[in-house]
């Protein structure tokens, strides 16, 4: 199982490259984000659902991805509150609680203005519930070599699996690379700077000995088998995401994410399956040519002087 997971991670890093940085004409600012949040919250108080959804979409898809300056904890908390209001309008209470929990971790003393949300509003009960839900498992965020990440305003902090988070990525020289909003259940990217091996995996991690010669078919068969199994895993995930996408009860706000995941894992399944078949073909070729253990034909070997005949027949 460890071998399958490691190979799956390695293949995914090759087949589904690092997420492209949003095409930003120019960086956005924290002030723009705060202003958008304020307008959205005010729209919620005025029962203007269309205006709220417009502002929440603007904050999530245009302002946040282009935010190069470091976001404060309070700024991140305000974004999560806006996402909670969006989820409330869409009737997704589970997401409301998750977003409010994220905001409470960053800004525990905040209270919604009474002219926006009064004491009897149903959102208050969800806000109180959010204070007691679990964070989830702590997961390290891997920054680029020589760089660092800001996780909801905290440098090199972990991400918790059941809590939405904002990750800002900076490379060497404090160069901003990306800002990403990551929801619970969404895979955490790796931003390691080594393009050839972004996860730092070694041959031993994949169960492959560095001393294996290329003409031995057995390693080819092993890697081919793991690759095909990994393809099956990707396919299963793609079908699961597709089912969520086609489920009538899925909120409209989540459809784009499920569609993106379906396409990504589907593509990974096809490419990794094809790679597995190709590797199996190489293994068969090695088997036919060199035998099942790679030693079916003689090879040229160099001897040391001590191994040569001493000239006296000994």
Structural write-up:
With 314 residues, the chain is of the alpha+beta class. Helices cover 49% and strands 8% of the residues. It is built from eight helices and six strands; from the N terminus they run H-H-H-H-H-H-E-E-E-E-E-E-H-H. The chain has helices spanning 2-15, 30-45, 49-63, 73-89, 93-106, 122-130, 217-246, 252-290, and strands at 138-139, 148-151, 154-155, 159-160, 165-171, 175-182. It has a four-stranded antiparallel beta sheet with strand order 3-2-5-6, with helices on one face. Strands 1-4 form a two-stranded antiparallel sheet. Helix 3 (49-63) crosses helix 4 (73-89). The N and C termini lie far apart (53 Å). The model is unreliable at 1-22, 195-206, 208-213 and 297-314 (pLDDT under 50).
Salient structural properties:
elongated, 6 strands, 8 helices, alpha+beta, disordered N terminus, single chain, about 325 residues
Question: What is the percent of helical residues?
Answer: 40-55%
- How much strand? 5-15%
Radius of gyration: 26 Å
Principal-axis shape: elongated
Mean pLDDT: 79
Order of helices and strands: HHHHHHEEEEEEHH
- Largest sheet: spatial strand order: 3-2-5-6
Number of helices: 8
Taking the sheet with the most strands, its summary is:
4 strands, antiparallel
Flag low-confidence runs: 1-22, 195-206, 208-213, 297-314
- Distance linking N and C termini: 53 Å
Q: Which structural class fits the helix and strand makeup? A: alpha+beta
How many strand elements?
A: 6
């Amino acid at each position: 199982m460890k071998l399958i997971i490691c190979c799956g991670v390695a293949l995914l890093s090759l087949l589904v490259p690092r997420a492209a940085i949003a095409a930003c004409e120019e960086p956005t600012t924290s002030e723009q984000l705060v202003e958008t949040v304020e307008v959205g919250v005010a729209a919620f108080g005025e029962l203007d659902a269309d205006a709220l959804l417009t502002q929440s979409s603007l904050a999530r898809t245009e302002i946040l991805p282009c935010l190069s300056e470091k976001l404060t904890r309070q700024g991140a908390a305000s974004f999560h509150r806006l996402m909670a209001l969006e989820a409330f309008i869409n009737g997704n209470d589970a997401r409301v609680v998750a977003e409010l929990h994220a905001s409470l971790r960053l800004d525990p003393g905040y209270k919604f203005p009474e002219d926006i949300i009064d004491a009897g509003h149903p959102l208050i009960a969800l806000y109180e519930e959010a204070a007691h839900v679990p964070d989830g498992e702590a997961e390290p965020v891997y920054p680029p070599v020589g760089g660092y990440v800001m996780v909801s305003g905290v440098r090199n902090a972990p991400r918790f699996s059941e809590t939405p988070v904002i990750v800002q990525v900076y490379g060497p020289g404090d160069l901003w690379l990306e800002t990403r909003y990551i929801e619970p259940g969404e895979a955490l990217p790796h931003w390691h700077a080594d393009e050839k091996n972004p996860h730092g995996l070694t041959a031993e991690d994949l169960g492959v000995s560095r001393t294996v010669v290329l003409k031995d078919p057995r390693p080819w068969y092993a890697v081919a088998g793991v690759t095909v199994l990994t393809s099956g895993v990707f396919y299963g995930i793609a079908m699961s995401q597709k089912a969520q996408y086609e489920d009538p009860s899925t909120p409209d706000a989540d459809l784009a994410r499920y569609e993106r995941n379906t396409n990504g894992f589907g593509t990974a399944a096809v490419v990794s399956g094809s790679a597995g078949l190709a590797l199996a073909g190489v293994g068969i070729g090695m088997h036919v040519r060199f035998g099942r253990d790679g030693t079916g034909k003689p090879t040229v070997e160099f001897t040391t002087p001590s191994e040569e005949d001493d000239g006296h027949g000994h």
